[in-house]
Design goal:
The chain is of the alpha/beta class and 359 residues long. It has twelve helices and 14 strands.
Length: 359
């Protein structure tokens, strides 16, 4: 079973995990979720229910609502879960040093959040990243000719890199689909898998302990030795489906069942695969299988479409700009992705203008 896939380690503050007739031990952790959006709320609610010590760091505008009404997580299969009396703050000084900080904000908000994290970071604090697309740390502990190279599309001023040492970081690929209906109110659509791994591919106690905690919370979690390959696998589809949905307002199933947009998604994925291959990444699925999997998600609005509808800024650089930066680095033509990037970038600027006008 899933529990049997993780080796649990001894430590202080032990919880007992039971699966069937087996009994295992996992470490109780102090966990800070940075960003109470759809995925952050999903993780925080289920980790708190399982007995982990969870707190949230979010914008001041969110804090009052989260404090007053807690969080509500609903799903078709598991019904409704309510967590009240949350420890939530807009000031990390009010929170103690954590064992694990989960960065659940959108990629383009990390540079704003990173300088605020110092009070949460002790000598052994781990930072786990959940963002869509490619991460700012992509070439950290990477090895090879690009070791340590900064992705300027994701961290142009080096703010994130200066605030979060790469030795703290483990990568995580979040596969659940969820929708934030209001602050602290989230609907879990489908999926429950979180794949994690060290940036240098080594086995580590901290990855095993975090995976164990996620499993105890009701998720599936796997520790793998090539987290970049898994990041690419998700980004492969996300860069196409998110952008196309934002531009067309179509759901996942609509994009996949319409021949022109299904073709467009496939061409974008084909170009991305060329770059990934040049960087040593091989995909374990075909493009058609990846699109078929997206179609099965059904009438789900991508996170970028949700942001468009709410007038929020878009993850253009993480999903598209970073891939174009790697294309330039590896001399790879990308006419289709470059065209979609231009349209999505203009959409983001248009939404920004509308927000400014409303203010």
């Amino acid at each position: 079973d899933e529990i049997g896939q993780i080796a649990y380690l001894e430590g202080k503050n032990i919880l007992t995990v039971r699966s069937g007739e087996s009994s295992e031990e996992i470490t109780r952790m102090r966990i800070a979720i940075v960003g109470a959006g759809a995925i952050g709320t999903l993780m925080g609610a289920k980790l708190a229910e399982s007995g982990q010590q969870v707190c949230f760091l979010d914008r001041q505008s969110q804090v009052a609502q989260l404090r007053s009404r807690g969080i509500t997580l609903s799903s078709r299969d598991e019904g409704e879960l309510r967590i009240e009396h949350l420890m939530v703050s807009a000031d990390a000084e009010e929170l103690e040093v954590q064992d694990l900080v989960i960065l659940a904000v959108k990629a383009h908000h990390i540079a704003d959040a990173a300088p605020r994290l110092a009070p949460l970071l002790g000598a052994d604090t781990t930072v786990m990243t959940l963002q869509n697309g490619l991460p700012w740390w992509y070439f950290s502990r990477h090895g090879g000719e690009y070791e340590g190279r900064q992705l300027r599309s994701l961290d142009p001023e080096g703010v994130i890199q200066s605030c979060i040492d790469s030795s703290r970081v483990i990568g995580c690929v979040a596969y659940p689909a969820a929708e934030a209906l209001a602050p602290g109110i989230v609907r879990h659509v489908e999926g429950n898998r979180f794949t994690i791994g060290e940036l240098d591919g080594r086995e580590s106690d901290r990855c095993r302990n975090i995976a164990a905690a996620l499993i105890e919370a009701g998720f599936k979690s796997y520790v793998i030795d090539n987290i970049r390959a898994e990041i690419w696998l998700k980004a492969w589809g996300a860069l196409s489906f998110n952008a196309i949905s934002a531009l067309t307002r179509a759901t996942m199933v609509d994009i996949c069942q319409s021949p022109p947009t299904r073709w467009l998604a496939g061409e974008m994925m084909r170009e991305a695969e060329f770059v990934a291959n040049k960087l040593g990444i091989e995909f374990r699925h075909s493009i058609e299988k990846r699109i078929d999997g997206a179609e099965k998600v059904g009438a789900h609005k991508t996170s970028m479409l949700q942001d468009v509808e709410q007038g929020n800024s878009l993850e253009v650089e993480a999903l598209l700009g970073s891939v174009l930066e790697l294309a330039d680095l590896t001399d790879t033509p990308m006419p289709v992705i470059r065209s979609i990037f231009a349209c999505t970038k203009l959409l983001d600027q248009t939404l920004s203008g509308a927000r400014s006008a409303a203010d």
